[in-house]
Design goal:
With 350 residues, this protein is an alpha+beta fold. It contains ten helices and 16 strands. Strands 1, 2, 3, 4, 5, 6, 7, 8, 11, 12, 13, 14, 15 and 16 form a 14-stranded mixed sheet that branches. Strands 9-10 form a two-stranded antiparallel ribbon. The longest helix is centred in the last third of the chain and has 17 residues. It starts with 13 loop residues before the first strand and ends in a 5-residue tail after the last strand. InterPro entries: Acyl_CoA_acyltransferase, GNAT_dom. One of its GO terms (molecular function) is acyltransferase activity, transferring groups other than amino-acyl groups.
């Protein structure tokens, strides 16, 4: 890809496809991205990203030429931290290394939806337009594949990330929070005596009708966690609800009159922490009629997570006073902060 000048008219930033040899460089400036708030997942996943040849994924790095790296005080780092030697495949010539100073990945989620994730910029290289060059490369990649929109997710407290997203054309779309019920195999004991109970054989069409008319869908703009890409959001469709039903992942509660709440399990993941493997059941969205229905729905989620042998559960819920307080009123834990989803319209001229 061609180089791009910085906003201040400085040296050009070059953006190219990532290679496995970039992994050490990327790990060097992402090990402490969020400080004590979160562990950054990029050092763990970037080697796989860079080695992946899936045409529905594009992973890119930004580089600065040696003279720009020197001005950004990158030249004093140890070899392998931020430099990539030339190898005849587009990197700098051997003996004249480039400095890898940023990364990003774009993913095709559907025929018309793309997702941008994992954008990181070496703090020492800020001010050279690295973030803008990476974002534009990802958006160009998405356009070339026919995407009408590209979305991303930004922590609500990440003012720098929010500002960068707005600067390159992303607009606010929605916000959500994770509810965190504890898996409990006995959670539904006695549910038969309640006004709202679990539906043993959920109808995906009835679930779709409920979702389509829900406040949750309105607030979330129809989005839920994508079934194939972790932590990406895409449109929840009738077909996805039908697939979830066939795979026993659709949960529904109701009374004699109608469906009163739905939730969809998207995946169960395993991760090793301090030598122990933990399993987390993730539910791509939950919607309900009122606080009572929310209580039964989260009991159903707790029982479902226990049946999946999960140690914990996360459920995407709309970030509204009604939804968050309904969860809290049923003594279900919620994350302390929301996440924001932003969207770039790719249908116009870039």
């Amino acid at each position: 890809m061609s180089g791009r000048g910085s906003a201040a008219g400085g040296p050009a930033v070059a953006v190219r496809e990532a290679r496995p040899a970039d992994a050490d460089a990327v790990a060097a400036f992402t090990r402490d991205t969020w400080g004590e708030r979160h562990e950054d997942y990029i050092p763990r996943v970037f080697p796989d990203w860079a080695a992946d040849d899936d045409p529905d994924r594009g992973t890119f790095v930004a580089t600065l030429p040696p003279e720009a790296a020197a001005s950004a005080d990158l030249d004093g780092r140890e070899a392998g931290d931020t430099r990539v030697e030339g190898d005849g495949t587009g990197a700098a010539d051997a003996g004249d290394p480039e400095a890898v100073v940023g990364c990003i990945q774009a993913v095709s989620l559907s025929e018309w939806e793309a997702w941008g994730q994992g954008i990181r910029v070496d703090p020492a290289a800020r001010g050279h337009g690295v973030g803008t060059a990476l974002s534009e490369a990802a958006l160009d990649w998405a356009r070339e594949r026919g995407a009408a929109v590209c979305r991303n997710m930004v922590f609500s407290w990440n003012a720098m990330g929010l500002g960068q997203s707005r600067a390159v054309g992303f607009e606010p779309e929605t916000e959500f929070r994770f509810a965190e019920p504890d898996p409990d195999a006995t959670a539904l004991d006695g549910a038969a005596d309640a006004g709202v109970g679990p539906l043993a054989d959920p109808d995906p069409n009835a679930a779709w009708a409920f979702w389509s008319d829900s406040d949750a869908r309105d607030h979330l703009r129809g989005l839920a966690l994508d079934p194939d890409e972790s932590w990406a959001c895409s449109q929840l469709t009738r077909g996805r609800l039908a697939a979830a039903t066939a795979e026993d992942r659709l949960l529904a509660v109701g009374d004699a009159d109608a469906v009163a709440g739905v939730a969809v399990r998207t995946r169960v993941t395993e991760r090793e922490v301090d030598g122990e493997t933990t399993r987390t059941a993730t539910y791509g969205v939950a919607a309900w009629r009122d606080a009572d229905a929310a209580g039964t729905l989260f009991d159903a989620v707790a029982a479902d997570a226990a049946a999946a042998d999960a140690d914990g559960a996360r459920v995407l819920i709309p970030e509204t006073v009604d939804h968050v307080s309904d969860v809290a009123a049923n003594r279900v834990s919620v994350a302390t902060e929301p996440d924001f989803v932003m969207c770039a319209d790719l249908t116009g001229e870039p």
